[in-house]
Every structure is written in C-alpha cells, then in structure tokens.
C-alpha cells in the first residue's frame, strides 16, 4: 500500500484539485454571477455538467489498483457511483428537513448530483467496492494519523462539503427574506465553500505528512 | 467490601433525593421570581358605564351629578397609522430639518393661522406600541398589556367598556373605513364600515385608496355622528422602506392632499345650519415609529405620535389662556405655531366628554383641558348644576364647567379603582391605594366646601368672584393630582417590568445550571475512576457531540426566527445525531436496522411538524404540495376522508396491542398486572368508542352518542387516576424487594406510562395513535442504539447522546402534535373533551396534560428505560443495583441539565428582548413552556429516587401544574387569542408573507 501511495505526489494531487476547481470556476463562468440565486436549477445543472467529467476523469486516473483495473472500468464505477451517491445525499437532506415538493424536485436532484460529485464519486472511482478503504475515507482519523495521499485527497474535501452543506442550512429559517435563503442555494454555497476549504486542508495535510515522513526517514 | 465504603456509598445514595429537591427548589424560586417580574397582568373588567350611573346614587358630590353634556355634534377621526410627531410638527421644533418633515403643510398652516381653533398635540402613547394595543387603549382609555386577563375565550373583540360601545349604546352612529383591525375589535359597533385588509404590509395603497374612495362622499352625508378613517400607508411604508424614503414622503404628500380636501369640505359645510356646524376634526397617529419603521417598544420615537385637532368654528379668545402652557415656535413662514403635549391615555375620556357619552368604565385618563377647550360649545355659558350662582366671565364659566367634568372623571376613575381592587387577580399595592384614596377624598371634600362658600354669597362681591377663580384652579389641581398619581401607579403596575426580580431569577437559574453541571461532572469522574481508565477516551466524543447539540439548540433561542422554527431545528438536530450514529456504525462496519428505522422516523416527524407549522402560519403553499394532500388528491376526497377516519382507530388498536403485550411481559405482580391489563383495555375501548361516536361515517342513536362523547373520556380519566393510585399503593405496601433492580424500574415506568398514556391519547385526538406509534418507535430506536453502544464500548454508563436524542424527540413530538409555543398554540379544544362547561382548575389541568403530555410527561416518565443497564458487566446483583441507581441519577440529571440550559437561555433571551414586539407573541410562551419543563423534570427526578415521600411530591407536581396553569390558562384565554391575532398577524405578515425585516433588530 505504501509503495502505491508514493506513486501519487503532492504535485499530482495539487494538479487534480486544481482541475476540479477549474471545473467549478468554468461552471461559474458559464452561469454568470448570481445565477445560483436567480435560477438555481440552471446553475446546478451547469455545475454538474462541468464538474462531472473532470472529477470522474481525474479520479479514475488516480485509481488505486491501476494494474488490475482499467481506466474505463474506473470511469464506469464513477458513473454508477454518481446516482447512488446522489440518492444517499438526497435522502440525508430530506431527513434533515429539505423541502419536498414539485417546485423543489429538480433543484434537489441537481444538488444531490453535485454533492455526489464532491463526496461519493471520487471514492467510487478510486476505491471501487473496497470496504476498508471506504471506512478509511469516512473516518476522522485521517486528521490525526498519517495515511495515503488519496485518502487525504478524497476525505478532506468530502468532509468539508458535507459539513459546509450542514452549516449552510442554518440561515434558512431566519426571517431575512433574502432570495438565497431558499433551498438549495445557501446549502450549495456552504457545500462549495466547504469543498474548497477541504481541498486546501488536504493539500496542507499532505505536505505536513510528507515532511513528517521525511523527518522520520532522516 | 469494607463496611465504611458501603456506608459511604449508602449515604451518597441517600443524599440524592436531597440534592434533587434542592435543585428543584432553586429552579422554582428562580422561575417564580422571573415570572413575577416579567408577567405584566391586568384584569379586564366586564363592567360598563351607563347613562344613569350618576343620578340615583347619592355618593357623588353635588357638583357632578350627571355625565357632562355633549360639546360637539359630530366627530371626524382620521387615524394615520404610525404617525411620527415630526411628521406633523414644523421642522423648526427639531434640531435638524429632515426630508420627511413639513410634508403635512395643511395642518401646520391651520395651527398657525387659526390658533383658537386648531392645535397640534404631541401625543404620548404607552408601550406596547402595536396597533391593536393602541386602538384598544384609545377606545378604552386604559393601559392594555399584552396579557389582559379577560373572559373572552376566542375572539379578539374587546370586552371592556369602550367608546365604541358607549357610542352605540347612546344612539350615536359610527362609520368606519380603513384598517380591518377595527372590525375585529368592534364587530358590532359600526353602522357602516368599509374595512380593508391590513394583512399585506407590502401593499401601501389598498387600504388608503379604499378610505379615499369613501371619505369625502361620507363627509357630505348626514347619516353618521362619528367617522373613523384609518390610513395604513405610512405604517406599511415605514415597515418596508423606512422613514427616510421616497414612498414615505409620497405617502405624506398624498395625505396632505387628502387632509386639505377634508378640511375644505368641513369648512364649507360648517356655516350655521350646515351639517358640520359643530364638528371636530382629529388627525392622529396611534403610535410612532423608529427610523427603520419598527414599532412596538417604548423608545421616544415609538411612543411620540401626534394629534391634530381643529374645529371649524372658532371658540372665544379666552381659549388661549387655557392653552397657554404649550411650547411655541416660529414655523417656516414666520408665523408662531404652538404645540401642546397630551397623554394618549386621556383620549378616550376626553372624546367621551366632548360627545356627551358616559366615560368608559375602565378609563383611567383625565379630560384634557386643551382638547376640551377647542370645542366651541364648551364656552357657551349654560346654566348648569349649582355653580351658576354668580355671573361669570367666559374663562371662569369654562373652568367651572371643566371642573365639573373633572369631578365626574375622578368619580369614574375612583369607581374603577375600587372595582378593580375588589375583583382582579393581582391588585395594586395597599399603601399606594391608600394614598390615592386620600387624594380623592380630599379633592372631593374641597369641592363640596368650595361650592358651599361660593353659593352662600349669593350677591358676591368682587373679591368673592376673584376668589372663585382661584378656588376652581385649586380644585382642578386637586383633581389633576389624583388622576395623575393614579395613572402613574397604573403605569408602574401595567407597563413596567420588575428588572430586579427578573435579574435575581436569572441569576438563580444560572446557579442551578451550574449546580447540575458540576454534579454531573463530579459523578462522571467518580464513575470513571471506578471504571476502566481507557473508557474515558471513548466517552469524550459522545460527550462533545451531545454538548454541541445542546449548545446549538440553546443558542438558537436567541433569535426569534429559530424559535418560530423550533420544531424544525429540533428535528434537524435529531437527524444530525442520527446521521452521526449511522456514520459511526458504518465506520464500525455494523449497520443495524435501528439506525435506518430512526432515519425514516425522522422523515415522518419532519412532515408531521411541517403540517403543524402550516397550521400556524397563514401560508397555504406549504400544505399544497404536502405529501398527505397529494395522496388525498390521488385517492379522491371521499375515500380520503374515510381513510382519515379509520386510520386512527386502526393504529389505536395497534398501539393498544403493543401496550398490552409490553405490560403482560413487564409486570409480574399478579394483582397489579390484571388490574392494569383490564384498565388499559377498557381505556382503549373507550377511546375508540369516543372517536367512533364523533365520526360522521356511522349514524348513532342519541344516547349512545352522548355516552361516547362525554362519559367515555371520563372513564379514561378515572382509570388513569385509579391506576396511578393503585400503583402507588402497591409500591408502598407491595413486596418488591425480592425483585431485581432492572425489573423494578421497568415495572415502575411501565405502570406510569400505562396510567398516563390513555388520557394523553384521548386528549390528543385523532392524531394520537399515530404520534404514539412514532414516539414508541423512536424510543425503541434510541434504547436499541444505546444497547448497541453499551455492547460495543463494554461500558454500562448512560450515554449522553441518547439522552439528548430523547429530549429532542420530545420537542419534535410537541410540534408534531400540532402545538406551538404561542398562546393560541394551546389546543383549547382538548380541554373540553368529555366536559362541556368551563372550570378553571379542571380544564387547566386537562389542557396542561394535553400540552405537556407527549412532550414532557411521557418522555420523562419513560426516561429510566435509557438508564437501565442492558449489557451486564458485573455479575453481582448488589453492584448492578448500584450501577443502575447511579445511571438513573445521571440520566435524570442530564435531562434536567438539558432542559435547564434551554430554560436559562430562553430566560436570557426573554429578558433581552422584553420590549421587543414579539416578546409576548413568541418568547414569553416559549419561556412558559420551558420553565415548566424543568419543574416536571426535577420533580420527576425526586420521585424516582425517593420512596414513599415521592408520591407526595408528585402530588405537589400536580398541584404546581394546576397552579401554573390556572395562571397561564387565564392569561392564555384572552392574551392568547386576541393579542396574538394582532401581533402575530402583523408580525407574521411582516416577517413571513411579505418579507420585511421589521422585526429583526
């Protein structure tokens, strides 16, 4: 495992994150300023369209068992993972109180696809169906104990996105009556912010970890 | 084990009840002090003045033997909602000219040009400065608090005596146009009315245009005596755009135009013989507003409104000497404008005096001399009463007349004071009352004496006449003294919070939280040192999660939005805790069915809460795409109704089955078991029968229906009480010692649940079984998860997350059952299940069971289920008993701490926001609900631990509840409906329907 882990350098990881970020930026550029508020469904759709190919491609390239598993198999895993993750995310959101109604369906579907891209798809592409790896991704131990670079890459943004979305729900009941308080706008903002923070955190963790490994080696 | 150690342990166990009692005492004291400082209450008297109040009784002075005669024939009242003082007064009265000043030029011009007949007043309102309270104050002449204890159980209509009532009774015809709040307050008092919805704050023009359409044509008609035109535009413009905005200025300019039209019309018709020969025009605000357009509080901007009075006919110049104590200033055109100050409190009685109707019974105002003098006819020298012994000049005659009016005024206020002290729940302090009474009797004696002296000198010399003027002045002063000191007393009793006792209450509350927290920490360190050291690291994340949930929930009470959405917040937090537990299970790799069931349960409660919320808010959009209504649409209305009728009974059968199954398994004492089984069966059958007799599906014979409607609930209540008594009896005398601790606690809880649940179910109504199923499933999930957690961590300590989940579930259930924390969120219907007549203790008790049953009583009674040790680490029975007792203490303490923290935060919030518009609508009932929770909990705590003494305490609990509720139901009845209707309506319209940030500070 360790030998494999060294295959991905921090630079590659950084580049991968940069690509994902570029996807978000492209979606933002296409949708235009404030599109998320004025037309959330359209903005989220653009986000899915721009981000999905990038995330699936990048993380399929970074797949764990590169020898036994072809690139296309990883892509297929990602494509299956996308709706499954979307379903889980949507379920979680509804449990937490996301509004259900004809008016919100489309936005909810796109939102959960975006969340799936942030959380579920990377892990699906990289790990496939390996149970231990999934548990590793979910665990909070990555922040305390050193682990593989992919784990950092996948876990931190995933946790960030989920926490961000959770925190993003808090302004919703306030009576400010701003358009962005509607479901799923502020939740999406929160998730995006959390995702980006997670990417930065994962890079920081990687460098810290590397330095620690080097110090140990010395 | 060495004897000293066991002895120590025993003494520790014995000291628990004492600790709980102490916490309870501190709690109760804190709550008592706080509520005493915070709850301003006033009792509404359902008494009315009548025309012949004064004549037959000889208890009034000779000078004032009748209500004053009418001084104006017709009255036009133009109410401009939220009219700030600086909208009307010339800008020269203020340090800086602002863009919104000097827009009502026509009023300023009149005040400058016709000093004798027009006058601008600064009218000082009393908080709460919300429209409904102000309208009530303007017409009753009282000081309405948010909680007026009265007799109306539903409608916001005013039951107290008021001008409208007097006008209608004395044959005056009233026309109303504008704000429909008037119609709610006075549903039957208007001859003609043109109400327009005041609901939509965003709509600046509907009400105003409606008034404009009817105002001028009505002025030409002759079919009314009093015309009220209530414009809302300024209020709405303030709420949405603030004072310094173009819409506001446009509105003011529009009003200027309208008022010009009104004044021209009145003037043209005011010639002798015209229809407005003796008409008085009043242009007034009901309250002010801040620059942001907020109102409700007691700041100068909010309470300072203005009143402009003008009569088309000019009184004699002597009027100026009455008006002399006013501040004058030069206006924009170099003319002198004078402004007087009056209390809004005085409005009702002054208007009554002018129109010649009896003063409203509960009015505590004083006839304002300046406003009274503006009417020409008060200057007509009539021979009236006994004081016209000598020839007088204008001023003196007027003063004589005014003194007589004041005399009647004082008599009427004194009568109110006497009646109020005799009948109200909370009267005035005795020494103050004595002082007031002294003032009154001195004034009246003085008056009789002066009457005798002036009239005895029939052909009085010059000095006598001069003397009479000063005597009258003295007399007026004496009356003023009396009226003002009473107004001051009333203000302190009805509008001022007792900050000192609120502060002490808050400190005590914090103290009790600290005691509980430190005890809990102490307990944990003890149990941890005895347990394995390594367990600490495993407990910490659980504790921090629980702590975070409590803190988030408590912090959410600082914002009114979160209080409004408390059900959803609680559900969100519950769901969060569920998701973390799922996450935890996934990490461990063993997902159990309970996790998933709990998640699904969350979805159910969430939709249930949304249904409850949709009832609360006037927003039909929520219900439209709600799953239930969608299902109904698919099935069709008819089959849907049948389903809705049948579903409760089917689920009730299910609940009953589960209940009986549990009972038969749990209880092993034979007598108790059979009794409880029978009792439960009969109770559930009665409930089913009760519901069946109410449905429209079957047709019944009258007697059967009657039986089902009234007798069946009584049977349920009786069985509940009986089984409580029997369980207590069997606990005291029954041999339970041989049973294991686990078993004993289960029996105890099961018995309590059995005896309470049927009563609560029947009070909840049709939704009851559904809620019961949800709560049972929830409890099952929590207990199972707790077991799993105990098995995993191999620890037999109570899990804080389970406790907080339990309490969050309880909150969710509160909202799920259609309650919400406002006075009109009380389900009054529940109080009358089985009874037709109102009895304050009985109905209050039922209402409290309904309100707190599913959210406080049942969860706390079933709390020991979490405390039971399912995973047995020690084999020794003796040690197990210790562990269990320790656990129970801990769980109860934790639950108590959770409720205490929320209660403390609620108190802080209430204290901070005490002058906030919403405080009575939302925060205060919230406070009420929360403050009672710890009582129940603490009492419950005591009960669990102690033995026979506990029963006594439980009774105390019941007694306390009745007591609390007697107060709350009393306040709730009137306060609930009427006040919330207005504040809630205004507020929800402002904050929800239309989206203004007017309540956000």
TrEMBL record, chain A:
Parts of the chain that traverse the membrane: 43-62, 74-98, 104-130, 151-169, 189-208
InterPro entries reported for this sequence: GPI_biosynthesis_protein_Pig-F
Topology in membrane: Multi-pass membrane protein
UniProt keyword Glycoprotein, yes or no: no
Alphabetically ordered keywords of this record: Endoplasmic reticulum, GPI-anchor biosynthesis, Membrane, Transmembrane, Transmembrane helix
Entry GO CC: endoplasmic reticulum membrane
Pfam families: PIG-F (PF06699)
Protein name according to UniProt: Phosphatidylinositol-glycan biosynthesis class F protein
Organism: Miscanthus lutarioriparius
UniProtKB/TrEMBL annotation, chain B:
Keywords: Endoplasmic reticulum, Glycoprotein, GPI-anchor biosynthesis, Membrane, Transferase, Transmembrane, Transmembrane helix
CDD domains in the record: GPI_EPT_3 (cd16023)
Subcellular locations according to the entry: Endoplasmic reticulum membrane
GO biological process, one term: GPI anchor biosynthetic process
Positions of the UniProt region annotated as Disordered: 974-1001
Pathway linked to the protein: Glycolipid biosynthesis; glycosylphosphatidylinositol-anchor biosynthesis
GO CC annotations, alphabetized: endoplasmic reticulum membrane
Residues spanning the membrane: 499-522, 543-563, 634-659, 671-690, 710-733, 745-765, 803-823, 844-871, 891-912
Topology term for the membrane: Multi-pass membrane protein
SUPFAM superfamilies reported for this sequence: Alkaline phosphatase-like
Chief place of localization: endoplasmic reticulum
Domain of life: Eukaryota
Biased composition (Polar residues): 990-1001
GO MF annotation list: mannose-ethanolamine phosphotransferase activity
PANTHER family with a match to the protein in the record: GPI ETHANOLAMINE PHOSPHATE TRANSFERASE 3, PHOSPHATIDYLINOSITOL GLYCAN
Family to which this protein belongs: Belongs to the PIGG/PIGN/PIGO family. PIGO subfamily.
Record-given protein name: GPI ethanolamine phosphate transferase 3
UniProt organism field: Miscanthus lutarioriparius
């Amino acid at each position: 495992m360790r030998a494999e882990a060294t295959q991905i350098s921090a630079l590659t990881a950084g580049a991968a994150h940069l690509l994902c970020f570029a996807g978000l930026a492209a979606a933002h550029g296409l949708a235009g300023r404030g599109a998320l508020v004025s037309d959330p469904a359209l903005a989220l759709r653009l986000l899915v369209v721009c981000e999905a190919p990038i995330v699936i491609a990048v993380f399929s390239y970074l797949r764990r068992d590169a020898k036994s598993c072809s690139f296309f198999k990883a892509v297929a895993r990602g494509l299956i993972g996308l709706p499954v993750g979307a379903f889980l995310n949507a379920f979680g959101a509804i449990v937490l109180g996301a509004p259900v109604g004809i008016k919100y369906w489309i936005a909810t579907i796109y939102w959960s696809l975006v969340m799936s891209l942030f959380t579920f798809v990377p892990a699906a592409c990289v790990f496939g169906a390996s149970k231990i790896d999934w548990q590793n991704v979910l665990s909070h131990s990555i922040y305390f104990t050193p682990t593989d670079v992919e784990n950092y890459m996948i876990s931190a943004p995933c946790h960030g996105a989920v926490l961000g979305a959770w925190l993003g729900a808090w302004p919703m009941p306030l009576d400010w009556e701003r358009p962005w308080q509607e479901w799923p706008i502020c939740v999406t903002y929160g998730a995006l912010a959390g995702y980006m923070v997670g990417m930065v955190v994962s890079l920081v963790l990687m460098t810290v970890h590397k330095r620690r490994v080097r110090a140990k080696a010395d | 084990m060495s004897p000293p150690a066991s002895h120590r342990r025993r003494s520790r166990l014995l000291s628990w009840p004492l600790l709980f009692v102490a916490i309870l005492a501190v709690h109760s004291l804190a709550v008592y002090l706080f509520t005493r400082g915070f709850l301003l209450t006033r009792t509404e008297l359902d008494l009315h003045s009548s025309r012949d109040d004064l004549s037959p009784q000889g208890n009034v002075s000779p000078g004032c033997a009748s209500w004053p005669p009418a001084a104006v024939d017709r009255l036009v009242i133009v109410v401009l909602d939220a009219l700030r003082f600086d909208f009307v007064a010339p800008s020269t009265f203020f340090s800086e000219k602002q863009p919104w000043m000097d827009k009502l030029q026509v009023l300023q011009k009149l005040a400058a040009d016709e000093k004798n007949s027009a006058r601008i007043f600064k009218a000082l309102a009393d908080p709460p400065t919300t429209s409904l309270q102000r309208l009530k104050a303007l017409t009753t002449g009282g000081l309405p608090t948010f909680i007026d204890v009265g007799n109306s159980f539903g409608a916001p209509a005013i039951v107290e005596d008021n001008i409208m009532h007097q006008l209608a009774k004395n044959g005056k015809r009233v026309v109303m146009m504008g704000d429909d709040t008037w119609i709610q307050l006075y549903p039957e008092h208007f001859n003609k009315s043109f109400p327009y919805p005041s609901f939509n704050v965003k709509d600046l023009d509907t009400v105003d245009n409606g008034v404009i359409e009817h105002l001028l044509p009505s002025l030409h008609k002759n079919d009314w005596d009093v015309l009220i035109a209530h414009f809302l535009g300024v209020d709405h413009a303030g709420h949405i755009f603030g004072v310094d905005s173009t819409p506001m200025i446009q509105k003011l300019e529009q009003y200027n135009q309208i008022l010009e039209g009104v004044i021209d019309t009145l003037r043209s018709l005011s010639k002798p013989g015209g229809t407005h020969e003796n008409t008085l025009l009043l242009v007034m605000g009901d309250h002010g507003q801040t620059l942001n357009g907020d109102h409700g509080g007691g700041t100068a901007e909010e309470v300072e409104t203005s009143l402009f009075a003008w009569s088309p006919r000019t009184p004699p110049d002597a009027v100026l000497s009455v008006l002399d104590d006013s501040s004058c200033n030069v206006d924009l055109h170099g003319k002198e404008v004078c402004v007087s100050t009056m209390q809004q409190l005085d409005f009702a009685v002054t208007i009554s005096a002018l129109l010649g109707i009896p003063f409203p019974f509960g009015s505590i105002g004083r006839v304002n001399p300046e406003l009274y003098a503006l009417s020409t006819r008060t200057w007509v020298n009539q021979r009236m009463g006994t004081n016209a012994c000598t020839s007088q000049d204008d001023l003196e005659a007027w003063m004589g007349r005014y003194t007589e009016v004041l005399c009647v005024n004082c008599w009427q206020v004194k009568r109110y004071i006497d009646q109020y002290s005799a009948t109200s729940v909370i009267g005035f302090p005795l020494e103050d009352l004595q002082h007031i009474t002294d003032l009154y009797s001195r004034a009246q004696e003085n008056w009789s004496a002066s009457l005798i002296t002036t009239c005895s000198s029939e052909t009085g010399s010059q000095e006598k006449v001069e003397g009479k003027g000063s005597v009258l002045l003295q007399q007026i002063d004496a009356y003023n003294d009396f009226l003002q000191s009473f107004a001051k007393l009333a203000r302190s009793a009805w509008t001022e919070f007792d900050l000192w006792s609120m502060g002490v209450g808050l400190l005590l509350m914090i103290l009790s939280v600290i005691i509980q927290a430190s005890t809990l920490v102490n307990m944990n360190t003890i149990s941890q040192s005895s347990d394995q050291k390594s367990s600490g690291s495993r407990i910490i994340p659980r504790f921090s999660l629980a702590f975070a949930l409590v803190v988030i929930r408590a912090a959410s009470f600082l914002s009114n939005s979160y209080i409004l959405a408390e059900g959803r917040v609680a559900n969100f937090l519950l769901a969060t805790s569920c998701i973390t537990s799922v996450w935890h299970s996934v990490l461990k790799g063993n997902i159990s069915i309970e996790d998933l069931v709990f998640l699904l349960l969350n979805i159910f409660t969430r939709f249930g809460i949304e249904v409850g919320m949709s009832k609360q808010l006037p927003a039909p959009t929520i219900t439209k795409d709600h799953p239930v209504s969608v299902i109904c649409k698919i099935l069709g209305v008819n089959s849907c109704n049948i389903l809705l009728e049948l579903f409760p009974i089917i689920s009730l059968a299910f609940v009953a089955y589960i209940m009986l199954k549990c009972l038969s398994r749990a209880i092993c004492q034979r007598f108790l078991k059979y009794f409880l089984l029978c009792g439960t069966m009969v109770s559930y059958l009665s409930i089913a029968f009760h519901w069946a007799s109410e449905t429209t599906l079957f047709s019944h014979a009258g007697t059967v229906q009657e039986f089902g409607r009234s007798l069946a609930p009584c049977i349920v209540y009786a069985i509940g009480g009986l089984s409580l008594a029997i369980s207590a009896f069997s606990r005291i005398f029954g041999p339970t010692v041989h049973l294991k601790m686990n078993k004993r606690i289960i029996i105890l809880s099961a018995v309590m649940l059995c005896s309470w649940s049927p009563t609560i179910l029947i009070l909840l109504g049709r939704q009851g079984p559904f809620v019961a199923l949800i709560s049972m499933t929830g409890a099952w999930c929590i207990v199972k998860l707790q077991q799993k957690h105990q098995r995993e961590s191999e620890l037999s300590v109570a899990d804080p997350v389970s406790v907080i989940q339990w309490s969050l579930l309880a909150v969710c259930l509160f909202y799920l059952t259609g309650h919400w924390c406002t006075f009109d969120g009380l389900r009054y219907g529940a109080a009358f299940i089985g009874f037709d007549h109102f009895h304050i203790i009985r109905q209050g008790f039922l209402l409290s069971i309904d309100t707190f049953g599913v959210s406080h009583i049942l969860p706390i009674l079933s709390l020991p289920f979490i405390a039971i040790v399912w995973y047995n680490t020690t084999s020794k029975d003796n040690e197990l008993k210790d562990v269990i007792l320790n656990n129970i203490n801990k769980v109860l303490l934790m639950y108590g701490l959770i409720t205490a923290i929320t209660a403390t935060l609620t108190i802080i919030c209430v204290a901070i926001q005490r002058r906030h518009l919403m405080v009575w609508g939302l925060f205060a009932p919230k406070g009420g609900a929360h403050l009672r929770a710890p009582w129940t909990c603490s009492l419950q705590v005591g009960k669990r631990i102690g033995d026979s003494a506990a029963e006594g305490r439980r009774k105390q609990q019941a007694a306390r509840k009745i007591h609390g509720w007697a107060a709350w139901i009393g306040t709730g009845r009137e306060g609930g409906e009427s006040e919330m209707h207005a504040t809630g309506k205004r507020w929800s319209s402002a904050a929800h329907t239309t989206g203004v940030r007017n309540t956000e500070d």
